Every structure is written in C-alpha cells, then in structure tokens.
Amino acid sequence: MADTAIQAVIFDLDGVLTDTAEYHYLAWQELADAEGLPFDRRANEALRGVSRADSLRLLLDGREVAEDDFARMMASKNERYVELLADMSPSDLLPGAVELIDACRDRGLAVAIGSSSKNAPRVIAALGIADRFDVVADGTIVEVAKPAPDLFLAAARDLGVDPESCAVIEDAAAGVDAALAAGMLAVGIGPHERVGNGHLVFPTTADVDLAAVLAARV
Ligand code: B16
Ligand code: MG
Q1: Half-sphere exposure of residue 146: CA atoms within 13 angstroms, side-chain side
Q2: Binning pLDDT at 50, 70 and 90, where does residue 163 land?
Q3: Is the CB of 48 under 6 A from ligand 1?
Q4: 12 lines ligand 1 (CB under 6 A)
Q5: Given ligand 1 and candidates 39, 79, 115, 168, which is best to mutate, with the most ligand atoms within 8 Å of its CB?
Q6: What mean pLDDT comes out for the span 69-90?
Q7: Does the beta carbon of 172 sit less than 6 angstroms from any atom of ligand 1?
Q8: E strand or H helix at 113, and its extent?
C-alpha cells in the first residue's frame, strides 16, 4: 500500500455529475427499433460508462454489419442523443455535484473530468460547470475506452499529478475497473453489485464523504 496523499479528483460525468443515462437509453432504443434489434431498459444498464462504439457492439450482440452501416448507426444514435441534450441546463446537475466539486477546489485539490463521452464538453457547458475544471479528458482523446486506464492516465498527466495521488469518482463498473487499472483510488457511486470493486462506495454523489476519500490510500 502506497502512502501518497490524494492531490486530484477525477470526476466521471454521466451518472456522477448528471444523469444523461435516460437520454442515451432513448437514443439507443430508437436505433434498436429502427434496426429491428432487441433492446430494453434492462439491456441498457450494460452500456453504462461504455463508449459509443463498444455500446453498439453490445447492442448488435455478435451480428455482423458492414463498416459503413456501423458508422451510420453510431452517427444516427449520436444525432438523436445530441437533440435530446438541447434542453439541458444547470437544473440537470445531480444533487451534491457542485458542492462536491467546490469542496475539492476549496481544499486545493486539482479537479478534472474523465468521461468516455465525446459530448462531455457540450454537456458540462450546458450544466454551467465548465470553468470549474482544470482538465477535461473526454472520449475524443484516447483510442482505447474504459475499462482501459488510458483516459484517466491522460487526465492525470494533463493535471501533472501521479496516478496514485488521484481519486476517481465513477458510477460504472467499467469506470471503476479503469481507475483500478490506472493505479488510482476508485470511488464507486451506486449499488455494490455494480461498483463494489471500488476502494470506497457511496450510494449517490450527495453521499460522498470527501474526508473519507482523502483519508483513503491506493
Ligand atoms: P458519447 P461517462 C459515457 O459517459 C456514458 O455513460 C455512456 O453511456 C456513453 O455511451 C459514453 O459516455 C459515450 O458517450 O456517445 O456521448 O461519446 O459515464 O464516461 O461520463
Ligand atoms: Mg458514468
């Protein structure tokens, strides 16, 4: 066990600071219906925190499609998702989200976004929180998505902080696994069945005990 103090907090976006899961679900459901693919809310749970391309692979469930069709389906889902984001505002922040970000900043911690979403900059702008982050690492900056550690390692590099001095706050199993693979403190948000691999687990963002996070070690 290292004895390095936490110097930075990397926030996942969807599911931690805002709940866009419903919009992702609606957009995937429309695509699935249009393509005659079986899909429902239950199946959507497996897509939490998973990149757009990996989500479509899960949706296709082994069905082979031409490269062009794959690209068309991803574009169609994203077009609908972006439409659904149009009405997003600061009222879509999850309870406790801004308070937690500001508590980190007040304690002198560096703060970053580490989101698989290529739409992350658009979402944080709509939420009115873009200027609170030192670094925004999103799905456009890495080739390999969560559960690979690449996105969180890129955020740490851009913050100038060693991975073992970073805490990651994540709502998805893939994100918790990515944080662990990066050698970071993994803080899971949600049920133990989903994020129980994390070093610490809290039911919601509003429940995060920052003092407990800062007292924990990787
Ligand atoms: P996009 P996170 C993830 O965001 C979402 O949880 C996941 O449902 C989505 O497929 C992924 O971003 C990619 O999003 O299609 O907008 O690039 O939880 O990592 O903040
Ligand atoms: Mg998430």
Answers
A1: 29
A2: very high
A3: yes
A4: yes
A5: 115
A6: 96
A7: yes
A8: strand 110-114
